[in-house]
């Protein structure tokens, strides 16, 4: 009797195990796992170089101090930086127009009277851009531009020290108020030290406004760099949207394009790339401050500040702006190699866009050789200018710069100091034959 029940229990258990097995099999066959959707990781485009703020690119390039006896000055950025740091702490207010179209004689009086310092910018600075660097307390800030700041630390009788903003091209002059304590501190910190700077001289026969140059010889380095170039493909990835390699007319030049119609081309002969977006061509003028801010942002977007570039100037009517290469505090010029960033803006479908962009592809990373050179004195440079077959009144600037050349083997680029003069916005070299030569110094 007991064995009978045991057999029945086994049969029931076996039946249950069969059902359980079928259930598990069905569950495995029909099970659909659920997974969290993993979003693809965003591809972060690595900028070519570090971004820069406005005050690193919009820079003065010279400061002069006028006293009753002499004029001294400096073009060293370390000294200029200290002065800018002081100016940035001032509360500048009550900016008002005092001359709409001052004559050259009036501009000279404002700039070069004694007890004044003059800060030189290479191009016009819109007040809103200056406000982003300094502390202008006024609510309404004019859109006007200036290229000289005059710090009057001692005022004539019955007047107060003041700050002047002068546009030497248009003759427009603005005056602003700064707390008297700021001028006193400026005099104590910088005017006394200015006696240690180089003496500057001018020649009345040159320029419609006085052009001051260092009186003595100029010591600067002659520098060789290995030719390091950023690849054209790297620029294409930064400037174009999903760039594709196009077939150039000569079957050798690299060209890239994208679906928008933009084209980027390498220019191996002058070590540059050129970008153009034909749809953005326009004849509309630009607001000067917008042009400068937008251009700074554009270059920052792709990390285009590969070396030390300073704002050089603009043509707001044509929406054009330029940034010049500097090394050792001097501008670089060349007749064969690109030495600046040139940007032209336009409009496409109602949006501001870059119409064209020209820039160098080389980057100054590997210094190969450096030797000190002694340039002719500023006095000799002024005498050389007077020998030129040109309208001396049309000359607007004279200063040392660097001449950039390339070795025959295309392995080195050389920066050699030389004297330059500017006429109608174009720079030309004062040859050593005119200035009396240059000497190699100690290594």
Automatic annotation (TrEMBL):
<keyword id="KW-0472">Membrane</keyword>
<keyword id="KW-1133">Transmembrane helix</keyword>
<dbReference type="Pfam" id="PF07435">
    <property type="entry name" value="YycH"/>
</dbReference>
<protein>
    <submittedName>
        <fullName>Two-component system activity regulator YycH</fullName>
    </submittedName>
</protein>
<feature type="domain" description="Regulatory protein YycH">
    <location>
        <begin position="7"/>
        <end position="431"/>
    </location>
</feature>
<dbReference type="InterPro" id="IPR042274">
    <property type="entry name" value="YycH/YycI_2"/>
</dbReference>
<dbReference type="InterPro" id="IPR009996">
    <property type="entry name" value="YycH"/>
</dbReference>
<feature type="transmembrane region" description="Helical">
    <location>
        <begin position="12"/>
        <end position="31"/>
    </location>
</feature>
<keyword id="KW-0812">Transmembrane</keyword>
């Amino acid at each position: 009797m007991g064995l009978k029940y045991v057999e029945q229990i086994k049969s029931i258990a076996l039946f249950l195990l069969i059902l359980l097995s079928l259930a598990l099999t069905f569950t495995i066959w029909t099970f659909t796992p659920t997974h969290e959707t993993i979003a693809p990781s965003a591809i972060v485009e690595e900028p070519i170089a570090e971004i820069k703020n406005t005050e690193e690119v919009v820079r003065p390039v010279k400061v002069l101090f006028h006293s009753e006896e002499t004029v001294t000055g400096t073009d060293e950025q370390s000294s200029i930086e200290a002065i800018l740091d002081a100016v940035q702490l001032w509360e500048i207010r009550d900016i008002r127009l005092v001359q709409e179209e001052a004559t050259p004689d009036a501009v000279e009086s404002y700039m070069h009277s004694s007890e004044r310092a003059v800060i030189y910018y290479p191009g016009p600075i819109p007040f809103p851009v200056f406000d982003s660097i300094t502390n202008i307390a006024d609510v309404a800030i004019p859109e006007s531009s200036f290229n000289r700041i005059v710090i009057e630390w001692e005022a004539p009788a019955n007047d107060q020290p003041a700050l002047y903003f002068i546009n030497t091209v248009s003759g427009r002059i603005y005056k602003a108020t700064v707390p008297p304590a700021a001028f006193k501190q400026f005099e104590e910190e910088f005017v006394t030290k200015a006696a240690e700077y180089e003496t500057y001289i001018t020649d009345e026969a040159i320029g419609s406004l006085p052009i001051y140059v260092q009186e003595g010889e100029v010591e600067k380095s002659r520098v060789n760099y290995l030719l390091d170039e950023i690849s054209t493909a790297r620029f294409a990835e930064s400037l174009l949207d999903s760039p594709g390699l196009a077939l150039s007319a000569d079957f050798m030049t690299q060209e890239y394009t994208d679906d928008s119609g933009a084209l980027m081309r390498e220019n191996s002969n002058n070590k540059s790339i050129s970008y153009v977006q034909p749809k953005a061509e326009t004849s509309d003028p630009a607001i000067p401050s917008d042009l400068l801010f937008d251009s700074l942002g554009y270059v920052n977007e792709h990390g285009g500040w590969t070396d030390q570039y300073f704002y050089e100037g603009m043509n707001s009517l044509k929406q054009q702006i330029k940034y010049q290469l500097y090394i050792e505090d001097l501008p670089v010029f060349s007749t064969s190699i690109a030495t600046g960033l040139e940007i032209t803006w336009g409009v496409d479908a109602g949006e501001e866009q870059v119409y064209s962009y020209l820039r160098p592809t080389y980057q100054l990373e590997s210094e190969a050789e450096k030797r000190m050179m002694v340039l002719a004195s500023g006095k000799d440079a002024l005498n050389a200018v007077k020998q030129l077959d040109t309208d001396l009144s049309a000359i607007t600037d004279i200063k040392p710069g660097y001449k950039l050349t390339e070795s025959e083997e295309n392995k080195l680029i050389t920066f050699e100091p030389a004297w330059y003069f500017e006429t109608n916005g174009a720079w030309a070299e004062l040859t050593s034959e005119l200035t009396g030569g240059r000497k190699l110094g100690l290594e």
